[in-house]
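[step 3/7] fold_predict: job queued, chain A
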Amino acid sequence: MARELQIGGWLVEPDLNCITRGKKKIPVEPKVIEVLVCLADDPGEVLSKEQIIQTVWPDTYVSEEVLRYSISELRKAFKDDAKNPRVIQTIARRGYRLIAPVTKKDPFSQAKASVAVLAFSDMSALKDQEYFCDGISEEVINNLTRINKLRVASRTSSFAFKGRAEDIRSIGKRLNVSAVLEGSVRKAEDRLRISVQLINVKDGYPLWSEQYDRELKNIFAIQDEIARRIAATLKITLSPRESDAISKTPTTDLRAYDFYLRGRQFYYQYTRRGIEFALKLFSQAIELDKDFARAYAGIADCCSYLFMYGGNQNKHLKQADSNSLKALEMDPDSAEAHASRGVALFLREEFVESEKEFETAIRLDPMLFEAYYFYARSSFVQGELEKAVRLYEKSSEVNPHDYQAPLLVAQIYSDLGQPQKAEASRRRGIEVAEARLKLNPDDARALYMGANGLVALGEIDRGVEWAGLALEMDPSEPMVLYNVACIQSLAGLSEDAISSLETAFKNGLSQEGWIDQDSNLDPLRSHPRFKRLIKQIWKQAGSQDLKN
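[step 4/7] structure written:
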C-alpha cells in the first residue's frame, strides 16, 4: 500500500508522485515530493536547508538553488503564497517549515505486515560467493511471498540498495515496509555460516536475530527456518498450505542449485552474453535434476529474451514455449512460472492466454514486478495504451527503483497528449537511472534508456553522449543498437538512426510489433531507407501485412 499524507485539504501520495484535492490531481517530480515528505516528518519544526538536502539527496551534491526550485514547485502545486503562506513557510537565513496540519496514514500500523529482504553480504575469504548470497536472499523472498498476510518488497526494489551504506530505517521507509531483514554469508567448502537480523524500521532495533552454522546440504532448511521465524516475529500464523509451500525445496541436488544460482546472476545482467551464459547454466542444472521447475522457468526467460533481442528466433521461441510450460506443470503455484509462461505466450502473439497467465502471476504475488512490466509491454504492442499506462505505473509502484517503466510510460503519455505527465515520468526515470549508474557505471541499458529521456526533454547533447557510451560498451548488441536508433531519431540524426536499425536487425533483433507502435521512430517513417527496412523485417517475420 502506497504512503499517504493529508496536508491541509490535500491528499499527498509520495509513491505515486502526486498531490490531489477533490478531482484535481497534480503530478509532482519525485525529489520535489520527497522534500515535502521531509518537511512533513517534522511538521511545525524549522528544518535547515542543509538538513533537507542531506535527507533528500544523501549521496549527491546539489546546490541550494535546487532546493529553492523544489519549494517553488510545491508552492505552485498547493497554490501557496510565499509572502502569506498557508502550507510552507520560509524562515530567513534558517530554512523552511511545514505549517499546514499534517495527518499521516502510518504504513506500519496497517493490518498487513510488511518486510524487505536486502541482498546478503559475502563474508567468504575470497569474496567469490556473491551469486550464492544473492540466491539465498532471493529464496527467502520467494518463501515469504507465499504468505498471504505478509507484504514483501520485490527483489528488484530491495536489491537496489545493494552495496550502499544507508541507514536501515531510511531504507525501510523508502521501501514502505515495517521491517527489514539483512544478513551475511560465509561459505567455505561444505560449511555455511549465515547471520541474519530482522530490524524494526520504526526505531532501528532488532526484532530478531540468529546465526546458523550448518553444512551446505542444510541450505534449504535454513531458508525455510528464516521465513518461519520472520512470520512468527511479525505475529503471522501460517496456514497449512503456506507452511507446505515454504517447506517445498526447489531441488534435491546441491550442484544443480549452484548452477541455478550462478545462472540467475548472469541473467540479471540483461545483456545477450549474460543471458547466453545463464542459459547454459540453467541447462546444466536440469541435466543434474530433471524436475527442477525454476531452472526450466530460467531457460524460458532466457529464450524469450533471445527471441526478442538475439538470433535463431524460431528456435528460441519454441524453447521458451516448451520450458515455460514444463515449469508451470511442475510448480503450478509459482508466480514466476506463470509470468514466464505469460511472456512466452505474448511472444507467440497468443495475447488472451498470455494475459491470463500475467493475471494469475499477479494474484499469486502482487509484488512481482516482472508480471506487471511484461504485461504492460504486451498491452503496448497491442495498441492498448491506456492499459499499458496503468500497468507500467503499477510496476513503478511495486518497484520505485526501476528506471525502465517510468521512461517507457513517459513515451505513452506523450502519445496520449499528456505532456506534463510525460515530463514528470521522464525526470523520475532519469533520476533513477542516474542513481543506478553511480553504482553500476557499466549498465548500458540505464545509459540508453536514460538517454532517450534526456533527448525527449531537450537535453540532446547529453542524451547523445549517454547513447554513445552505451554503444561503446556493446556495439553489436541488437537491443543497444535499436534503442540508440530511437535516440538518434529523436535527435534528428535520421541516417544514423536507420543505420543503427539496419545493424540491429542484421544482428538478430525481432521486434516488428513494437516498431509499429514506437513513436520514437515516427520521424523516420517517410524515409525510403526506413520503408525498405520495414518491408524486409516483415518479410523475414513471415508476415503478409506489409506496410507502405
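[step 5/7] annotate
The chain has 24 helices and 14 strands.
The first strand starts at residue 4 and ends at 7.
exit 0
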